[in-house]
Please model this.
Amino acid sequence: MINLKILDALNIQIQKEFFSEYLYISMEAYFAEHDLDGFANFFNVQAREERDHAYKFFNYVNRAGGKVILEAFDKPKSDFSTPLDVFESALEHEKFITKSIHDLLDLALESKDHTTVSFLNWFVDEQSEEEESMNKVVKKLRLLNENPAGLFMLDQELSQRTYIPPVV
Model:
């Protein structure tokens, strides 16, 4: 049976991952409203990935003999001023999730729960990629400084992102 302190922390992380999906759907909606379909696609893919992350935690808790407890979460931000504002918000959110994963890993290490440590290592690597991905777009948007031609080129680039379901 899984350590109750770790179980509680894993359930909180499940909530954070599902909220991430919801937040990214909100960001997708912002871009869809502004007919920036490539940007919308980027966040559609991101939302699906976050749902996969939530289910990775969900399935891990079940396999470890714990009980998944889902709680309500707050309404995500939906009022954004610019594409840069959206991506800066997304980057900050990814940093928040990274810290949460690191705190969870620290707890597993303190508890000498090697199985959970092994499970969480995938998320440590994944969060590094998530932050890098968001940061690259933030840097590009800052360079563009709202130049419409550049924005449309970036929109075209982001339309190429595809969703790849995880191997179960």
Notes: The radius of gyration is 17 Å. Helices lie at 4-33, 37-63, 83-110, 114-144, 148-158. The chain has one domain: 4-69+78-158. The chain is about 75% helix and 0% strand.
